[in-house]
Design a protein that fits this description.
Elements (H helix, E strand, L loop, with lengths): L15 H20 L4 H8 L7 H24 L1 H20 L4 H29 L2 H31 L5 H4 L1 H15 E3 L10 H20 L9 H23 L8 H4 L1 H32 L3 H29 L1 H21 L6 H28 L3 H35 L8 H28 L16 E3 L3
Antiparallel strand pairs: 1-2
Helix pairs in contact: 1-5, 1-6, 1-8, 3-4, 3-5, 3-9, 3-16, 4-5, 4-8, 5-16, 6-13, 6-15, 9-10, 9-16, 12-13, 12-15, 12-16, 12-17, 13-14, 13-15, 14-15, 14-17, 15-16, 16-17
């Protein structure tokens, strides 16, 4: 079996084409997460459906989140390459259909298709990186992948604004076509796997129960306090149905020959704590990305572009620290590195919460940058620690579970922070249009983000100290890059 373990990480190395393909694939998801928001006014003006446009985001997030565990398990059975290509194909089809959408309901439906594609692309890109790069190399690779998010945080809103100003909002979806085709072609040409072809028993019932139950639970979290009241009959029914189906899923998994979400994923302390850390990271990220622009635009009448750039400091700080985290955890270990990161995150969140009463674009940008630096030192080492503790045939599930926990954290975070903000808006005569109320509500949200960061500290403390050499032996024997 030919492997490539010591040939460098850059674009010119033998694995360079795969790295470029993984970055392009990640870019599809990263740009899409920011490009749509700036085009909403143009979309609504063209196809209508103002009251339904939040579903452009909720439907996408929901489809992406619930599909991750299923894709992750399948990738451990049939390999990473088929799954990521399926994801790129679904994302491509969804993008084309979104560009042709004739109404808001149609656009929302096609966004679901995009979300199903994104649910395969993002975790598979990270898993493939874990397969073909050594532990020492992987932190640098994560820096490459994280840099995609930093670039997209600027490129996405800018492209969305340009397409909207030109009156061609459909271009925000059609621009994905060449990117999808190029990423797919490069993966087909350069990435090859050696998979042991054995007979598997696919857990269809478990996958179905997991998808439906989590769809209902995340739906309740996303729409509670928005589409319906938390204590309404529909809210209670959605959560109750989700809980019952999830309980049924747990019972099915105990008897399944090859469960889609094996019990060991939550029974191993390292995997459980790193998933909790990822949950906290997701909540912190969404708390800031959802409310920092509103805070600046409402309190200081800042332009959307300036508000977006202040928020971009968050995703600029992340790749800087993520790319350097390898040097740190190879010296002091995963847990200590994550502790430093979460401490920096708490400091940044504290600065933001304490200065919210005196709004300042500069202070917000600095705070977001500090939080980003901290999250890069938390998310990357904890994910790599989880990946490195298992063999190839378990790495897909582990990576998928970690990213799924982040998605759940984002959904729950949106629900909690939204409830906090709405409680202040509803109790003030000026509501969400009064600058003072916006400052108060945003300050309460930022304080909640700080609480979330402190709770994440507990998860990091509970994370077992592991050697960076753990699980590294033989982890690359299944994947190779072949020059053509």
């Amino acid at each position: 079996m030919k492997t490539t373990l010591a040939e460098g990480v850059g674009f010119r190395s033998k694995r360079g084409p795969i790295l470029i393909a993984l970055m392009l694939s990640t870019g599809l998801v990263a740009i899409d997460s920011t490009i749509v928001a700036t085009a909403v006014p143009s979309i609504v003006h063209d196809v209508g459906g103002f009251t339904s446009f939040p579903w452009l985001f909720s439907a996408y997030l929901l489809a992406q989140a619930v599909s991750v565990p299923v894709y992750a398990k399948l990738s451990d059975i049939v390999g990473r390459k088929p799954i990521i290509l399926i994801g790129i194909g679904l994302f491509l089809l969804g993008s084309i259909l979104c560009g042709l959408a004739w109404s808001m309901p149609a656009l929302i439906a096609f966004r679901v298709l995009q979300g199903l594609g994104a649910g395969a692309v993002q975790p598979m890109a990270i898993t493939i990186a874990g397969d073909i790069y050594t532990l020492t190399e992987r932190a640098k690779v994560q820096g490459y992948l994280a840099s995609v998010w930093a670039i997209s945080s600027v490129v996405g809103p800018t492209l969305g604004g340009v397409f909207s100003s030109l009156g061609i909002w459909r271009g925000i979806f059609l621009v994905n076509i060449p990117l999808c085709l190029l990423a797919g072609w490069m993966l087909i040409r350069s990435f090859h796997e050696d998979i042991e072809r054995v007979k598997h028993r696919v857990d269809y019932l478990g996958a179905g129960l997991l998808t439906v139950s989590l769809s209902l639970i995340i739906l309740g979290a996303l729409e509670g306090g928005q589409a319906w009241a938390w204590n309404s009959a529909i809210s209670i029914a959605v959560f109750a149905a989700g809980a019952v189906l999830f309980a049924a899923f747990i019972l099915v998994e105990r008897r399944a020959a090859e469960p889609v979400l094996p019990p060991w994923v939550v029974s191993r302390r390292l995997l459980a704590t790193t998933a909790m850390i990822s949950f906290g990271v997701g909540a912190i990220m969404l708390g800031l990305t959802s409310y920092v622009p509103t805070f600046l635009e409402g309190a200081l009448s800042t332009s959307p572009i300036l508000a977006g750039l202040a928020l971009a400091a968050l995703t600029i700080g992340w790749p800087i620290s993520a790319s350097q985290s390898g040097r740190v955890y190879l010296r002091i270990g995963f847990r200590r590195t994550a502790m430093i990161g979460v401490a920096v995150t708490v400091i940044g969140a504290a600065v933001l919460a304490l200065t919210a009463s005196t709004p300042s674009i500069l202070l917000v940008a600095i705070s977001c940058f500090i939080v980003g630096l901290g999250l890069g030192l938390v998310a990357t080492p904890s994910l790599i620690a989880a990946q490195s503790s298992v063999e190839w045939n378990e790495r897909g599930v582990v990576t998928g579970t970690n990213l799924f926990a982040r998605s759940i954290g984002s959904a729950i975070g949106v629900a909690v922070f939204g409830a906090v903000a709405n409680a202040i808006y509803s109790g003030t005569p000026g509501g969400s249009t009064d600058p003072h109320t916006i400052v108060s509500a945003s300050g309460a949200v930022f304080l909640s983000v700080l609480v979330g960061a402190v709770l994440t500290v507990i998860a990091v403390i509970a994370m077992p100290a592991t050697s960076h050499n753990a699980g590294s032996a033989g982890q690359h024997r299944r994947a190779e890059a072949i020059e053509n």
